[in-house]
Write a structure and sequence with these properties.
single chain; 107 residues; mainly alpha; 3 helices
Length: 107
Amino acid sequence: MAHGICLLDQALDLAMQEMAALEDGAYDKAVALAEKRNEITSMAWHMLDGDNVEEWRGHLLELNRVQEHLTSLATQARDTLRQELQRSRRERQRMNGYHQAIGQALQ
């Protein structure tokens, strides 16, 4: 049982690192941390037993709370990237229009 709790603590630590990576815009690092966190959480889940259920429950609830925050951060990052891509597309279209207008004016 104690090993399972240690694994949940490791998963929580990885979740905090993942949160920092998302906040810093290090999305590849955040993905790698999320994958590692998922592996460790799965390993801990298989160790779940009837002893100290409340301790397990507390750790799992904390992981769930952090996961909700991570989901919120990821959604914000996705929306920000989507907006930046749209701005970039509009700028590229505008520049293409300028180039076409200049090319026609020079002819």
